[in-house]
Design brief:
By secondary structure, the chain is an alpha/beta fold. The protein is about 45% helix and about 15% strand. A six-stranded mixed beta sheet has the order 1-4-5-6-7-8, with helices on both faces. The two termini are about 20 Å apart.
């Protein structure tokens, strides 16, 4: 059986969508596209346009220069004058009733720009091309379709009237994997998304994706309701499936009941965009009087207000004080408010505000709380419930409070569900890492365990006494840890391409560390730009380091008892900060301190500060993609630990492969417990990257594969065919990827590798030469243009059969419940589907799961059993293929042996020669292709 061709895939999709209500239309080029556009706009607007009127409409559509500006034009009505000088209007899209649009499907539309391009499948809504689907035949990388669309954008989308720049959603598929994305000024394959069901199960097959995602009403809903035009970055943003389902569940609950609920979406997964969409849609529901979005700190009030206004300009005003908040509450024109929990609490409790606020007590008010697990929220929650008689409350959190991580207050444990009721949707950390939406963690426990003799991780500290307070705060320990950080930070930060944060147990110890770094800097030991911020109140809880909690910071110091010494020290540090950056901050009052906080946050994000020293501040709610390393000399546990670690896991380019956590405390068990609580116990290897030794083995194996293609640097010159060059590019790309991963480990040296540094650099030069040749020859349709030369650092190609077998071994435990076992089996198959090599073995792995796993003993070697299973299946299929294709057994075995030895796929002529009966000249080509595909499938399934 041959692989389904691209054209067959295309025809199937067209047939499916035509049956689902899309009108099939034949459009060859732009002139026919314009004729169709006029007819569809007339149908949609229930009018007719003269030639001159349509010319005005076309000029209006062509006027915006960028896809972002065109997206705004698409969503607006256009007013123009007709021949009688009367005002007429044209709408391009029904935004309110999204199902009431006109839908068509076309294929192979040709546009002539810098080059002539033909587009696979185009979905037209009211005559405008709003969805583009690029297909590749089964077996090809999905990235090829992504690269193809990127070339269309450069070569022809802007041609003519630029109507193809109105595309809102791109879809790429090779039949078995299908993803969607939207316009970006800097295209990045990482920002393409799988659609899923509500349980986060991926929908990858094109036919099922078309049924669900390309349904007429759903695709319109995604464009009109779940696409956001971000004014700050001039980017179009489309919500991911988990964000979509969360918003839908909140809307549904408000419309159908008065119950509350909460959303568990892991830290770093884009809760701000999700909560904005929920708030925006709720504020447009007539029966709702106010939507109040609550954050827990004044800096987040400003930050969230800014972000909300960038999503929708003018949508809100930040509440600078409680008086302004009260004014917004009573202004009927203000539907959406962003404020802090503290201001909200003051507004409903202070007598001077109550006369004004009392009229709102019976109004329908929906509250949305960011990070709803905050401890101070408990009392405010009671007051809201008591004050607003017709309220609903929804909470977002990345780390809910469960029974295991709840702190007891007055003998009572308050859980997230106690405050907010049902969990409406969940998207946990393992989901986010699997989808590539956040990064995994690399955790080094330093100074707690013994490493090999020449390890740079070895600190000469008496580990048996490390948990005593005296040792933890000793000058000797602080000096050694300070020197250690100075020695490794250049490497950890990728030569200051990223920033770091150092979280410390208490203010007293932080001051010791900061003074040590200042002294070492004056001695010329480092040139790091350091800064710090901490609370200077006298009532800092001395037990927070014992409990591992991160308490909420109070930025209102005006009425707080101040520790004079701590404040003077901080003012001294701020004075040095002012000299460095030419600023003028101080701690004279809450406003001045808050402005300092904002400036520090900005400079950390902009990489102007190398290491920020903190106790609790910045460990929750602070987003900085350029921060990649967290140094920890502080006890953390459960939600506090995940929150702190997650400061490092935001995506930021190819060089940031994981968040780096350098721990100087014994937090191994606390880390394992937190991961088990917020995902599941069998998923730790997804969250934490493997030890250096694992990467060394993988690197050396990758070098072997590279040497099979190009045994010497000079032999790269002898790679003449496109296929040979492509094989080299893929092989060396894997070597580079693994080397990049090892760079961040303190113990890494080339001495452990089978390739020395000079040889690596020499191969890298050859790789760069091929990259340059491909980039400077755009008119040549080279196969190298289909290859991603960028370094995919977190990628499924590091997951192999051995990895899957480890997952299977975890399932083969008596204590694993049957329900958990089934869920993990499905997760394993999802991992298999996501990897192009493993996908060819899916049927075998699935059969092994169902047929063999239940019969295995707990201590049995799964690798050996699976290998035996594979060998048996390989023999059976090989002999079946020999018989069915009428092949000569000896000749085929000779061909396969040659492949195993050289790694080169057999020639078509060799396969034809292995037939028992020689085919006629007329049939030779078709039989040769069929045999090539059959052998290729066999090799992919059993020999790769």
């Amino acid at each position: 059986m041959t692989t389904q061709s691209e054209s067959a895939l295309e025809n199937e999709l067209i047939h499916q969508l035509s049956n689902n209500g899309y009108e099939r239309v034949i459009i060859k080029d732009e002139s026919e596209l314009l004729v169709n556009l006029k007819k569809q706009l007339e149908r949609f607007n229930q009018t007719t346009y003269t030639k001159e009127e349509f010319k005005q409409i076309l000029n209006h559509l062509a006027q915006p220069l960028t896809p972002f500006e065109k997206a705004k034009t698409l969503r607006d009505r256009f007013a123009f004058k007709n021949e009688e000088n009367e005002t007429k209007y044209v709408s391009f899209l029904n935004m309110e009733h999204w199902c009431q649009n006109q839908y068509q499907i076309a294929n192979q539309i040709t546009m002539e720009g810098k080059y002539e391009n033909r587009y696979d499948v185009t979905l037209l809504i009211n005559g405008l091309p709003l969805v583009q689907i690029e297909l590749k035949k089964r077996g090809l990388e999905l990235k090829e379709a992504f690269n193809q669309i990127d070339r269309y954008k450069k070569h022809s989308y802007g041609a003519g009237f630029g109507l193809f720049q109105y595309i809102q959603i791109y879809v790429i598929s090779n039949g078995v994997n299908t993803k969607y994305y939207t316009y970006s000024k800097e295209p990045d394959f990482k920002f393409t998304f799988y659609w899923t069901d509500e349980e986060n199960k991926r929908i990858t097959e094109l036919s099922e994706f078309a049924r669900v995602f390309l349904d007429k009403c759903h695709i319109s809903k995604m464009i009109t309701r779940y696409t956001v035009l971000h004014e700050g970055s001039k980017q179009i943003m489309v919500l991911r499936p988990y964000q979509y389902y969360a918003v839908e569940r909140i809307i549904e609950r408000v419309k159908l009941s008065s119950k509350n609920g909460y959303i568990w979406h892991t830290t770093g997964s884009g809760k701000t965009l999700t909560s904005f969409k929920a708030s925006q849609i709720l504020s447009r529901i007539p029966k709702i009087d106010k939507v109040v979005f609550c954050v827990d700190r004044c800096d987040l009030d400003y930050q969230t207000s800014r972000e909300f206004n960038e999503f929708s300009p003018g949508s809100i005003d930040s509440t600078e004080n409680t008086g302004m908040l009260v004014k917004q509450f009573v202004d009927a024109n203000v539907k959406l408010i962003v404020t802090t929990i503290q201001k909200l609490n003051t507004a409903i409790t202070k007598e001077r505000h109550q006369k004004v606020m009392d009229d709102l007590a019976e109004k329908k008010v929906v509250f949305i709380f960011d990070e709803c697990h905050r401890s101070q929220f408990g009392e405010t929650h009671k007051r809201i419930v008591s004050y607003f008689k017709n309220h609903q409350m929804f909470g977002f959190t990345g780390t809910p409070i469960f029974k295991d991580n709840a702190l007891s207050k007055a003998g009572v444990k308050k859980l997230t569900k106690d405050l907010f009721g049902d969990r409406l949707h969940e998207y946990v950390i393992t989901d986010a890492i699997s989808d590539g939406n956040v990064l995994p963690f690399s955790i080094e426990y330093t100074g707690r365990y013994k490493y090999k003799e020449n390890s740079r991780n070895l600190l000469d500290i008496e580990v048996e006494a490390i948990d005593t307070q005296e040792l933890l705060e000793s000058d000797e320990r602080i000096e050694k840890i300070s020197n250690y950080i100075i020695n490794v930070h250049q490497q950890k930060s990728k030569s200051k391409g990223f920033t770091g944060m150092f979280c410390i147990s208490n203010t007293k110890t932080l001051i010791k560390y900061f003074d040590t770094f200042r002294r070492l800097q004056s001695e010329g030991k480092h040139d790091l730009r350091i800064a710090t911020i901490f609370s200077y109140t006298a009532n800092e809880d001395p037990n927070t380091d014992t409990t591992g909690e991160i308490p909420e910071e109070n930025f209102d110091f005006n009425n707080a008892k101040v520790d004079i010494h701590t404040r003077e020290v901080l003012d001294k540090y701020i004075g040095e900060y002012n000299k460095t950056f030419g600023t003028n901050y101080s701690t004279k009052d809450s406003i001045a301190f808050n402005n300092y906080y904002k400036d520090v946050a900005k400079r950390v994000r902009n990489r102007e500060v190398d290491i920020l020293f903190v106790v609790n501040m910045f460990l929750t709610g602070f987003d900085s993609p350029s921060l990649n390393t967290l140094y920890v000399d502080k006890n953390l546990k459960y939600h506090g630990l995940i929150q702190a670690y997650s400061r490092t896991n935001r995506l930021k380019g190819e060089k940031k492969s994981h968040g780096q956590i350098i721990v100087f405390r014994n937090l191994k068990k606390a880390t394992d417990d937190a991961i088990a609580l917020f995902s599941n116990k069998n998923a730790k290897e997804t969250i934490i990257v493997p030890p250096l030794e694992d990467y060394i083995d993988l690197f050396n194996e990758a070098v072997e594969r590279l040497m099979a293609i190009a045994p010497t640097v000079s032999s790269v010159n002898d790679l003449y065919s496109e296929q040979e060059k492509l094989a080299f590019v893929k092989a060396f790309r894997e070597v580079m990827r693994l080397k990049n991963r090892m760079d961040t480990y303190a113990d890494f040296t080339f001495g452990d590798l089978t390739m020395d540094e000079q040889t690596f650099n020499d191969y890298s030069s050859k790789y760069q030469d091929l990259k340059r040749d491909a980039e400077t020859s755009p008119e040549k349709e080279s196969i190298l243009n289909e290859v991603d030369f960028e370094l995919e650092l977190i990628h499924k190609d590091e997951i192999n059969v051995n990895y899957i077998l480890k997952l299977l071994a975890n399932l083969n435990e008596d204590e694993v419940e049957e329900e958990v076992k089934k869920k993990r089996q499905q997760e394993i198959l999802t991992i298999v589907d996501a990897d192009p090599v493993l996908r060819t073995k899916r049927e075998l792995i699935e059969r092994f799961l169902h047929e063999q796993m239940s019969t295995l003993h707990k201590d049995e070697d799964i690798s050996a059993v699976f290998e035996e299973f594979m060998t048996l299946e390989r023999r059976k299929e090989f002999h079946y293929m020999i018989e069915e294709e009428n092949l000569d057994l000896n000749k085929v075995e000779e061909v396969m042996s040659s492949y195993l030895f050289t790694g080169r796929f057999p020639k078509e002529s060799d396969l034809i020669d292995s037939l028992k009966e020689r085919p006629s000249f007329r049939d030779r080509q078709s039989i040769g292709k069929k045999l090539t595909q059959r052998i290729s499938d066999f090799i992919d399934k059993y020999l790769k």
